[in-house]
Hints:
Layout: H1 6-14, H2 23-73, E1 79-83, H3 91-101, H4 111-119, E2 124-132, E3 136-143, E4 146-150, E5 154-157, E6 162-163, E7 176-178, H5 184-199, E8 205-210, E9 216-220, E10 225-229, H6 233-248, E11 255-259, E12 267-270, H7 274-281
Parallel strand pairs: 1-3, 4-7, 7-8, 10-11
Antiparallel strand pairs: 2-3, 4-5, 5-6, 8-9, 9-10, 11-12
Amino acid sequence: MTISLPWSRKDQARIEPLVEVDANLLFESTEVEVEAQVQQESEWIWRPLFILTLAGVVLALWYAGIREYVSWIDRQIGYVAVEGATRHIDKSAVEQGVWREINAPLLDIDLQQLHESLVTQPWINEASIKRSWPAALEVELTEEVPVARWGGRGLLNHEGDIFWPELKPEYASLPRLNGPAHETVRIMQQFHDLSQLFSRSGLRIIGLDLEARGAWNIELDNGIHIIAGREELMPRLRRFLDVYAAQLADRADQVVEVDIRYTNGVAVRWRETSENSADKKK
């Protein structure tokens, strides 16, 4: 009699048939894996090398292109153009002066040095210089506009800057201002204010001097010279205008100078007439 134990049946139920594996398939799978690994390692080695080589070629081409471009734009200057509305500036002379200053190719030229050499010329107020391609310089000039004479040789522009050109007869009619060079703006403002004051009495100021000690002297278009001093300027001038209207206007051609530095009046110096000369001889 055969006795089947429970655990014996359980073990038998777990027994599964073995699967037969072909050895050739195992070898083929191994070879595929090896080939894939070799290919992966080969790509890991050659891909960075290819990228570096390509980058080197691109950089070399870029550098060659930059050198070619720079050599094209950094050529010797072949043309200078001088522009701007001018009356007194000789543009041909300015152009020749610029040519004498050119000592380098277009990109290396010192534009600041060129600018400084131009603005030192008396009639040039401002100069703008820029590069232009192919191989040219463009110069834009702003000319000085005189508004007054300064002393006996100079001129003043609207900003109070003194410049010293060769004086021309056409500027003889400009008012003549004079004084310390650092006081030009103050003198111009004073001239403006006094001109408005005198114009109400039909008088025109053609000269205004500021002495170093601060005293003012005025020259009128009728030839009268006014010594105004430095204190209480406006009250004294108003008093002079009252005296002028009441007593001097009819004899203005006989007046040489009026000193208004007095508290209650003015001192008048008259021109010498033939009668006065005769009286002096007697």
